[in-house]
Each structure stands twice: as structure tokens, then as C-alpha cells.
Design goal:
By secondary structure, the chain is of the alpha/beta class. Among the domains are: 137 residues, 3-Layer(aba) Sandwich (Rossmann fold), CATH 3.40.50.980; 90 residues, no CATH class. Helices cover 36% and strands 13% of the residues. It has 14 helices and 13 strands. The strands form three sheets. A six-stranded mixed β-sheet has the order 7-6-4-5-9-10. Helix 10 packs across helix 11 and helix 11 crosses helix 13. The chain is globular and about 65 Å long. The protein starts with 11 loop residues before the first helix and ends in a 16-residue tail after the last helix.
């Protein structure tokens, strides 16, 4: 059944109720998680949501998870939300506060730069959600203000509302397989916010990134949470390809290939044992789910599937050798080798 846009769904809390039956509906951060099923009848704002009604609220958290929870709770309650992305210079905060008429701050930490802003109402947000019986009216069509990167000066404010932010999000068929979103983007910027809103409107879970988290650890979390849809820039994906953990997110796609595809091209840096022990079982599982076999999956290769994959894709005899080679290559490309031994790549910039 596809979700239908209802005129009564004016805020994110309405979408929580719409998708309340989504099983294990969760936002996963790097250090904590939050159940959106529980958030429908709970709060992470220290019981002070009513104090923020009708205000212009600066959401200035260190963690994306606390920012996400705050946005859901405040939409329809606050008259304006200003999303403060990471990296905004403290020197720019007074102008942002003045221009957006900020009269409240929601944060997950005590910060000296906020003390100088002379804003009386400051509410702390926690990743743990506590039950509440207090109902706060959602009578505002909240303005959402996103800040530009500020690379050419002070950040500029761009005004949106929930309708404009979600206009391009198409209804999802809940009868299909569950979706777990993940993104390298920060949800306090437009690209990441779009993924966050897709998860909320679609009743899907979301794995949030952390700017301080090593890419290998993020990939491990993606695998642990079964991420099915992952978004990022080419720069993000280059970092993934250079990580030894890049193959850790492949089983989901290998399984899907076994279900619907005629073939599979694996990551070019892998070992025979990874192909044999991880990829092929995933392909078989996907094929079995649809009543297919490996003969169906790659008919032209049939029983030669494994030697073909070994010959074309397995570059090392075992993982230890592969890890050592990757370290050496990275060292060379980062300038760790002497100029006499550093490889030259014609035409590369």
C-alpha cells in the first residue's frame, strides 16, 4: 500500500502517526539510537517542548541524532527552525541569531559560544526518549531555515517549509521489502536533510554518519544495520573504495543481485576466500528466495562462475597480503614514499 499525502499531515509528528506500524523504526547514530515508534509518545527535550511553542529556535547540536529528534519534535510547534550545520564559525552566530530572530536554542551540550548570544531560553536535547503525557498543540506551519556553507563569507539563510522540502519525495510502497537508508551527508544540510525526510515520510530506518568517525567504522555500522540505500558524494565513495572495509557492505547487494540480476561485478579488491565465503552464499540466498539458482544467475558461466570470478577479481591469495598492499599503496599516494619511488600517474590531478 502506497502512502498518500493527506492534507492533515502538516508536520513530521503527523508522519510518525501515519507510519507508526513500521517495525523497528529507528534512527541509528554513531553512539546511540532512537526509536521513532517510541518518540510518538515520548520526548527528548527534557519535558520543555511547550516552552518552545511559537519560537524561532536555533537547533545547534553536535550530534546528528539529537538534531534529528529535535526537528521531529519541534516541527509544527516552533514557528521557525534554524538548522546550524557543523563548522559554522562562532563569529557568524550573532548575525544568524539577529537575522532569524532567534529566541531559543536547542543543543546537546553546553557551549561558551552560546553564552555570548544573550538568548534566555536554552533547552537540552538527549538521545534517550522519555515517556510523556503532555500534548503540545502543533498549530504552526514551521519555517525551516537552512544555512549555506559560508565558504565565501558569512552563511546565508535559505527559507523552506516542510511542503517544499518534501515535494520531490514520492510515496513508497510499504508492501515491498523494508528500506534502511544511510547517508554520508549531514542532515543539517540540504542533501542529508532530504534523506532524513525520506526516512520519516516513508517509515524507514536511517543510519546517520558522524564527521569524526573513521570510514571503516561507518561501513561496519552500515553492514550491522543492513543498510539498503546509501547516498554520498563522489568524494565519499572514493574514501569507501580506499577502505579495506569497502566489501563489508556488499552482501546486501550481492543478495539482491541473486534475486533480480543476470550477473554481478564484485569490488575489484577482494580475495578468493571473500568471494567463496561471503559473496557466493549471499548470491545463492538471493537466488533461492526467488526460486532461482546460480545457473539462472549467470547462465553463460554456469559452473565456471567461481573460477571466472577468481581469475578476474581476486587480486591476492589472502586478506593479510591484501591489507599489506593497500597500506603500501595508500602510503605512496599520500606522499609517504620518497620522490624517487613515488609512482607517477600521467594525467592525474
Amino acid at each position: 500500500m502506497k502512502m498518500q499525502r493527506n492534507p492533515l499531515q502538516h508536520n513530521l509528528a503527523d508522519w510518525l502517526r501515519e507510519n507508526g506500524r513500521s517495525p523497528n523504526w529507528t534512527l541509528w547514530g554513531a553512539h546511540a539510537s532512537a526509536s521513532l515508534n517510541i518518540l510518538m509518545t515520548g520526548t527528548a527535550l527534557s519535558g520543555r517542548l511547550a516552552d518552545l511553542a511559537g519560537r524561532s529556535v536555533l537547533v545547534a547540536t553536535d550530534d546528528q541524532l539529537t538534531a534529528a529528534i529535535s526537528l521531529i519534535e519541534l516541527d509544527g510547534v516552533a514557528r521557525r527552525l534554524i538548522l546550524c550545520p557543523p563548522g559554522v564559525a562562532p563569529a557568524h552566530l550573532p548575525a544568524i541569531v539577529t537575522d532569524a530572530e532567534v529566541d531559543a536554542i536547542v543543543s546537546d551540550r553546553a557551549a561558551p559560544e552560546y553564552d555570548a548570544l544573550d538568548i534566555g531560553l536554552r533547552v537540552q536535547c538527549f538521545p534517550d526518549i522519555r515517556p510523556t503525557e503532555n500534548t503540545v498543540p502543533r498549530s504552526h506551519q514551521t519555517e525551516w531555515i537552512l544555512l549555506t556553507s559560508g565558504t565565501s563569507g558569512a552563511p546565508k539563510a535559505v527559507v523552506h517549509n516542510l511542503a517544499s522540502l518534501t515535494a520531490a519525495i514520492k510515496p513508497r510502497d510499504h508492501a515491498g521489502p523494508p528500506i534502511v537508508w544511510a547517508t554520508f551527508y549531514d542532515i543539517r544540510r540540504y542533501g542529508g536533510l532530504q534523506i532524513f525526510l525520506r526516512a520519516v515520510l516513508g517509515g524507514s530506518s536511517l543510519v546517520l554518519s558522524d564527521g569524526k568517525e573513521p570510514v571503516g567504522e561507518f561501513l561496519a555500522r552500515l553492514r550491522a544495520r543492513g543498510a539498503t540505500h546509501i547516498t554520498g558524494t563522489p568524494s565519499h565513495w572514493r574514501r569507501v573504495l580506499w577502505s579495506p572495509a569497502a566489501a563489508s557492505i556488499a552482501p546486501q547487494y550481492a543478495r539482491m543481485s541473486g534475486e533480480v540480476a543476470d550477473g554481478l561485478r564484485a569490488h575489484p579488491v577482494c580475495t578468493p576466500s571473500y568471494i567463496e565465503e561471503v559473496m557466493l552464499p549471499a548470491v545463492r540466498a538471493g537466488a533461492a528466495k526467488r526460486g532461482r539458482s546460480l545457473d539462472d544467475f549467470l547462465g553463460w558461466a554456469k559452473q565456471e562462475l567461481r573460477p571466472v570470478m577468481r581469475r578476474m577479481l581476486a587480486l591476492c591469495a589472502d586478506q593479510d597480503i591484501l591489507n599489506g598492499l593497500l597500506i603500501r599503496v595508500r602510503r605512496c599516494l599520500s606522499g609517504g614514499a620518497s620522490s624517487a619511488r613515488r609512482p607517477r600517474f600521467s594525467g592525474w590531478t
